[in-house]
C-alpha cells in the first residue's frame, strides 16, 4: 500500500466514524422512542384486562341474581302466597251459607 492509499484509507475511516456515531445515536433514539410508545400500550393492556375482569364479575353477579332469588323476592313471594290463600279462604267462606242465613231464608219462604 502506498502512502497515498494509506492516507485515503485513514481519511475514509475518519469520515465514516461520525456517520457510524450518528447511526448509533439514531438507533438509540429510535429504541427510546419505541419504548415510550410501548409504555402506553402496556398501560392500556392492563386497563383492558382490568375492565374485562370487572365486566366478567358484573356478568357473574347478574347471573347469580337471576338464578338465585334474594331474600327480598322470597319474602315478597311468601307474602303474595299468604294473601292469595287468605283471599281464597274468605271467598270460600262467604259462598257457604251459615246456619243463621239458612234459618232466615227458611222464614222468608214461609212468610211468602
From TrEMBL:
Segments crossing the lipid bilayer: none
Spans annotated as Disordered: 1-112
Residues making up the signal peptide according to the UniProt record: none
UniProt biased composition (Basic and acidic residues): 30-44
Start-end of Polar residues biased regions: 16-29, 68-78, 92-104
Protein's name in the database: 19409_t:CDS:1
Taxonomic source organism: Dentiscutata erythropus
